[in-house]
C-alpha cells in the first residue's frame, strides 16, 4: 500500500513515525484478512463438531467475521487519521458499517428476530450508508487533492 500523501508533500517528506503508522495499518489489515480464514474454520467446527445447524452457524460466523473485519479495518483507519495521513472524513465509512452490523446483531440476537425483515433492514441501511460514505470520501479526496 502506497502511503497517502498530503497535497504538496512527496513520499520522501513523510516522517519515520508516519511510516511506522502506515506499517501498523498494513498489519491490522493483514490481520483482518487472516481472521476471515479463522472464521471459516470456526464455521466448519460449529456445524460439524458442535452440532449447531448450518444456517445458524453461518449467521453467527458472518456477524462475528464481519465484526472482526470492520473493527480491524476501522483501527487501521484510525491509525492513519491520527498520523495525519488521511482526513478525518474517511473514518465515517468504518463507523457507519460497524453501526449497521450492531443493529443487525441486536435485531437478530438481542430481540431474537429471525425474520427476513431484520436482514432487509440492515441491507437497506448498509446500502444507504455505502452511498453516503462514497459521497463523503469522494468530497474529502477532492478537497485534499487525492
Overall description:
This protein has 146 residues and is mainly alpha-helical. It folds into two domains: 16-86; 87-146. The protein is built from four helices and no strands. It has helices spanning 16-49, 54-82, 92-110, 116-144. The model has no long low-confidence stretch (mean pLDDT 79).
Secondary structure: elements and pairs:
Elements: H1 16-49, H2 54-82, H3 92-110, H4 116-144
Helix pairs in contact: 1-2, 2-3, 3-4
Number of domains: 2
List the uncertain runs.
none
Q: Report the radius of gyration as a whole number of Å.
A: 18 Å
Count the DSSP helices: 4
For the structure shown, list the relevant keywords.
4 helices, mainly alpha, 2 domains, 146 residues
In short:
The protein is mainly α and 146 residues long.
Amino acid at each position: 500500500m502506497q502511503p497517502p500523501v498530503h497535497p504538496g508533500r512527496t513520499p520522501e517528506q513523510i516522517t519515520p513515525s508516519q511510516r511506522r503508522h502506515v506499517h501498523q495499518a498494513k498489519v491490522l489489515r493483514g490481520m483482518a484478512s487472516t481472521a476471515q480464514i479463522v472464521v471459516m474454520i470456526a464455521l466448519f467446527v460449529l456445524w460439524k463438531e458442535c452440532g449447531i445447524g448450518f444456517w445458524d452457524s453461518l449467521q453467527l460466523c458472518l456477524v462475528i467475521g464481519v465484526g472482526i473485519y470492520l473493527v480491524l479495518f476501522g483501527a487501521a483507519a484510525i491509525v492513519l487519521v491520527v498520523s495525519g495521513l488521511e482526513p478525518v472524513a474517511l473514518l465515517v465509512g468504518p463507523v457507519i458499517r460497524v453501526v449497521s452490523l450492531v443493529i443487525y446483531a441486536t435485531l437478530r440476537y438481542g430481540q431474537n428476530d429471525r425474520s427476513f425483515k431484520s436482514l432487509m433492514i440492515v441491507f437497506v441501511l448498509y446500502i444507504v450508508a455505502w452511498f453516503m460514505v462514497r459521497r463523503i470520501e469522494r468530497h474529502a479526496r477532492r478537497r485534499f487533492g487525492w
